[in-house]
Specification:
The structure holds two protein chains of two kinds. Chain A is of the alpha+beta class. In chain A, 41% of the residues lie in helices and 18% in strands. In chain A, a hairpin with an 8-residue loop joins strand 1 and strand 2. Chain A is elongated, with a radius of gyration of 29 Å. By secondary structure, chain B is mostly helical. Chain B is built from 19 helices and no strands. The chains are: A alpha+beta, B mainly alpha. At the A-B interface, helix 1 of A face helix 15 and helix 19 of B.
């Protein structure tokens, strides 16, 4: 699924032989994109861990997610 | 005596394709089972965290038709089910090219029905939609000026969370829901639930069509969007109008690919008139290197003029009220937002407006970069997906159902990195919002 870019390489041959033309994939851009993605995921993991530490420190009465019982007031 | 040659039957090793297909089927079954269990846990209606509408009052119609079959489940088990569903989803997406499309479609349908029948989960926004409908359709007041607290006696008020804020949805949505203001709260609730589920199915079908039209795998696209836990558990179950916006947006994209550009412009404006976020995709489609740009612009301009004219007539007091509301929303900070998590990681207790402005500058540069990429011949849909993800990541107000915007484009364009990044933000939100024991 990753995007690959291709380059054309021409290798000169000696002795009057025709040059060899090869088409090879250039993965530089794809590798850079993968590195950026990994860096983003690492940053996301660090922020998530920080959020979890904050939630634990805030406790159930602080600004952190917590559950509550369902209301007993019935409406129709 | 002649010896007969005896050959033992050779055991043929299953081919890789068959193994992948079997793995995909098993994972799909696990995803469906986990999703149904989550829906039944919500239907038990014994957690305010799962069904926040029940914080102030309990109503049988909120619990929904699955209530008799509800399974009382501890919250940590529900989160484990979400985690299992997520892993199974990832496996299905990886194997989807070997699974027949109609099997994936069937799984998508089953899960959409399950979350349609479940109560409104993990959000109370649908009750704000009902309130908007009742303010306009029943009380004939302008929802861009009058907030829910002005009608405290109304039957929906007890379930509304955002009581002192006016609506921030587009004029097309605010007008279109007015008829639902004249029916009961219960009827309006389940109409909104049905609309969200139908929109989710419609979006999934359009994404599959767009992927196929672009030469990609429709099966993988349908699986990547239609089986995603954020879509099902948060967005379909919560009946969010993001799906209505996305349906119009994807219809616009499909019309662009079909070279029906004037109609595409109208669909894109309709999406923006439901929720402003859709408007971010428009410049990418206009800049793409393809013929017919003028026809697309003509469709956009005519549709926009029509929407503005209708808005001025329908809401004479505050036709552009949603823009003011959106400005106020940017000042809000959600506990699961990435900027707030960055602040905590850097040792700060909170994030201040000046720091948010820095993020906005970075976001502008990010979007500009992707626009240049499209202008130079890049993939407009993938670029729009990355731009939308950038908006979500830099926003101080992160809500998980916003992730369906880039998710749809990631699935339609078969962009692995965009899909991984979008799902990672969803996982971060879910983990950061896991309630304390």
């Amino acid at each position: 699924m990753s995007t690959e870019f291709y380059s054309c390489r021409v290798r000169r041959s000696g002795g009057g032989h025709p040059p060899r033309v090869t088409i090879e994939p250039v993965r530089t851009v794809a590798r850079a994109a993968d590195l950026l993605l990994v860096a983003f995921l690492v940053c996301l993991a660090l922020t998530t861990a920080a959020q979890l530490r904050h939630n634990e420190a805030a406790g159930s009465r602080g600004h952190a997610p917590h559950d509550r019982p369902v209301s007993h007031r019935i409406v129709r | 005596m002649t010896g007969a040659a005896v050959s033992l039957p050779t055991r043929r090793r299953p081919s890789t394709a068959a193994l992948v297909r079997t793995t995909g089927f098993v994972a799909m079954a696990v995803a469906v089972a986990a999703g149904v269990l989550i829906a039944l846990a919500g239907a038990a209606a014994d957690h305010v965290f799962l069904v926040p509408a029940l914080k102030r009052a309990f109503a049988g119609y909120v619990a929904g038709p699955l209530a008799p079959y509800g399974i009382v489940t501890p919250l940590h088990v529900v989160f484990a089910e979400v985690a299992v569903m997520t892993v199974a989803y990832a496996v299905v997406v990886a194997c989807a090219s070997r699974i027949p499309l109609w099997w994936i479609g069937a799984a998508v349908l089953v899960l959409h029905v399950a979350f349609l029948l479940a109560p409104p989960m993990l959000s109370t926004d649908v009750f704000n939609y009902i309130d908007v409908a009742r303010l306009g359709g029943l009380y004939h007041v302008d929802p861009y000026v009058v907030h829910p607290a002005a009608r405290r006696h109304d039957a929906v008020y007890v379930f509304v969370h955002w009581r002192h804020t006016v609506t921030d949805y587009g004029p097309l949505f605010t007008l279109a829901v007015r008829p639902l203001g004249r029916v009961s709260v219960a009827e309006a609730l389940w109409v909104f639930k049905a609309l969200a589920a139908l929109a989710g199915l419609g979006c999934t079908a359009l994404i599959g069509w767009i992927a196929h039209r672009r030469g990609g795998s429709a099966a993988r696209a349908v699986a990547a969007f239609g089986l995603n836990p954020v879509l099902l558990v948060w967005t379909v179950a919560g009946a969010h109008n993001d799906l209505l916006m996305l349906l119009a947006l994807l219809a616009g994209v499909a019309l662009v690919l079909s070279d029906r550009l004037a109609a595409a412009g109208a669909a894109l404006v309709a999406a923006t008139a439901i929720k402003l976020s859709a408007g971010l995709v428009i410049p990418f489609l206009v800049l793409r290197r393809a013929p017919g740009r003028l026809r697309l612009l003509a469709g956009l301009v005519v549709a926009a003029a029509l929407v503005v004219a209708i808005s001025v007539v329908a809401f004479p007091d505050h036709a552009l009220g949603m823009f003011a509301k959106l400005q106020r929303q940017e000042a809000l900070v959600d506990i699961g937002s990435v900027p707030l998590g960055l602040a905590y990681a850097a040792g700060f207790a909170r994030i201040v407006p000046r720091e948010l402005q820095v993020l906005h500058v970075l976001l502008a540069a990010w979007i500009a970069g992707w626009l240049v990429y499209v202008a130079r011949g890049g993939d407009a849909l993938a670029a729009a997906g990355w731009a939308l993800l950038g908006v979500i990541v830099t926003s101080s107000w992160l809500l998980p159902w916003y992730l369906v915007w880039p998710l749809a484009l990631a699935a339609a364009t078969d962009r692995r990195r965009l899909l991984v990044a979008t799902c990672a933000v969803g996982a971060s939100y879910a983990i950061g919002h896991a309630p304390l024991a």
